[in-house]
Amino acid sequence: MDALTAENISSGYGRSPIVRDVSLSAPSGKITTIVGPNGAGKSTFAKTLAGILRPSTGRILVNGVDITRVPGHLIPRHGLSYVPQNDNVFRTLTVKENLEVGGYPSKGDPRERMLQVFRVFPDLQKAQDKKAGNLSGGQQNLLAMARALMAEPSVIVLDEPTAGLSPAYTDIVWTQIGRIAGEGTAVLVIEQNVERALTHAQFVHVLVAGTNHAHGPVEEIAKLDLAGIFLGQDRTNSSASTTSTISSINH
Ligand SMILES: Nc1ncnc2c1ncn2[C@@H]1O[C@H](COP(=O)(O)OP(=O)(O)OP(=O)(O)O)[C@@H](O)[C@H]1O
Ligand SMILES: [Mg+2]
């Protein structure tokens, strides 16, 4: 069973859905990415997983438990933590205080968990008494990821954790994402940069105009003409629909 399974999700902000009939699964210990052009509905889908938006169709399962109707603030307790792209730390609190907030209410001993999280993010331990607002943008993104980990999630959903970062810091963030997956967490990352997604992920979903255009293991997605797909002129295989040519949703 995959840690995260989303089935036939339609979701949006008004009457007509932005995301239409999207299915996705994310296995434990692996990195799954969603790529797609601006406005494709990637963040809308992530917000739906996090319970910020209610889907009009479909269901969301974490470790086999249906969380579709669980209120957003209770979803972390069901094992799914979400890091939005912006405004993802409490700027006036210290690093340590941000982590304490992330660990509340905690499953085990929050101090023990913080030490575990510091083992994954040693630089944050050094900066633990700094105000989050005084960290660089990249450091704030790392703190947001670390805070989400405090809840010991089975699934962590990261919305463009490298947006606006320097190439050097982007590498650092991806290294950390790899370490989170290495600890056994299912990681779902929205990534603007296709090359980076293909470099780091094991599974890739291509979202175009709110629908799942293609998905599969990275080796298969790498064969597609993603630039053409993004521009709406798929030159990979003009006769076949890409989704149907790629291996099934159950990885
Ligand atoms: N709060 C909102 N209210 C109404 N429409 C919205 C809202 N947020 C996003 N949209 C619309 O939903 C569509 C998808 O937006 P979304 O932010 O999900 O795209 P995205 O794939 O995350 O894009 P980007 O790569 O630019 O982050 C867009 O047409 C956008 O205008
Ligand atoms: Mg977005």
UniProtKB/TrEMBL annotation:
The keyword ATP-binding applies. Residues 4-234 form the ABC transporter domain. GO terms for molecular function: ATP binding; ATP hydrolysis activity; branched-chain amino acid transmembrane transporter activity. It comes from the Bacteria. Keywords: Amino-acid transport, ATP-binding, Nucleotide-binding, Transport. One of its GO terms (biological process) is L-amino acid transport. InterPro entries: AAA+_ATPase, ABC_transporter-like_ATP-bd, ABC_transporter-like_CS, BCAA_Transport_ATP-bd_LivF, P-loop_NTPase. Pfam families: ABC_tran. Belongs to the ABC transporter superfamily. PANTHER family: BRANCHED-CHAIN AMINO ACID TRANSPORT ATP-BINDING PROTEIN LIVF-RELATED (PTHR43820:SF7), HIGH-AFFINITY BRANCHED-CHAIN AMINO ACID TRANSPORT ATP-BINDING PROTEIN LIVF (PTHR43820). This is ABC transporter ATP-binding protein. It comes from Leifsonia tongyongensis.
